[in-house]
Design goal:
single chain, alpha/beta, Peroxisomal Thiolase, Chain A, domain 1, 2 domains, four-stranded mixed β-sheet, 11 helices, 13 strands, EC 2.3.1.180, Beta-ketoacyl-[acyl-carrier-protein] synthase III, 3-oxoacyl-[acyl-carrier-protein] synthase activity, multifunctional enzyme, ACP_syn_III_C
Length: 340
Amino acid sequence: MVAAVVTGIGGWLPPRAVPNEELAARLDSSDAWIRRRTGIRRRHFASEGMAVSDLAVEAGGRALKSAGGCDADAVVLATTTPDRPCPATAPDVATRLGLPGVAAFDVAAVCSGFVYALATGAGLIAAGIARRVLVIGADVFSSILDPADRSTSVIFGDGAGAVVLRAGSAGEPGELGPFDLGSDGGGADLITVPAGGSRQRLSGAEPAPGQYYFAMAGKEVFWRAVQQMARSAQNAVDRAGWRLEDVDHLVCHQANQRITDHLADELGLPRARAVTNIADVGNTAAASIPLALDQAHADGTLRTGDRVLLTAFGGGLAWGSVTLRWPAIDDGRGQGGPDE
């Protein structure tokens, strides 16, 4: 049976780093308050003139290089902040990466987008439509944040991460295990940008300026995220035939350090097994899981054969989880490559 196998990985952050002190100065806040509430000490923001496609091209190019080539049969881009509402951003990214003519499209599942894009890429391979798929998660959330909203503007950052999937054999390192995906449209208003879509445009009412910004009901989302990711992660582990105690690394959506800690506790895993990079990049939405994987690969945390559990929760509401045996990626970084 053909399996989807991870064979390359890459990530990219915009050069502009924004420490807590820069935001605290205009938000009547402090570095200590932001760290205590979120675990974040800095994040990266795209500079003027940048778009999400620029970040996606950088991360996608690094993933293709990591995989030992520049070819792919399809490009799947998970993003909530496309360059334009129409057309999709993925075809432009594919062309700029030297992949004209391949299937390319966007996936919109907010912070769960990368897991959904992975499932889509795996499905293309299983169906025989593609042999190699570039899967990218990229977001420029700074473009939709209300600069005066302390509850959101200190949390999110911009970035992109990507993996290359190839057709492989069941059981080999890098194989993506069974997925668990789900949604609850009853919570659509908990994580949203109220204005700009067809519902608002055809309502006959003029939106308030603030409705074009991202909004989130933080307290309710916090506990829903912990509980739903725990259930979804357990389902994925069960379908893979694993036990939770077998998991070497938990890589969840980097929403908030407290969410990561509570999720590890809920699953009965030591907090030290949870891969986290939120302190230096913030919540990068669809990019958070691949960026965390890229960093953990680069610093040697992920070793060939390690059992990795991925799980995410975001707007929609949508969630998803999948298991993964970490592959040997011989790109000069981390396990499987020469020392840096």
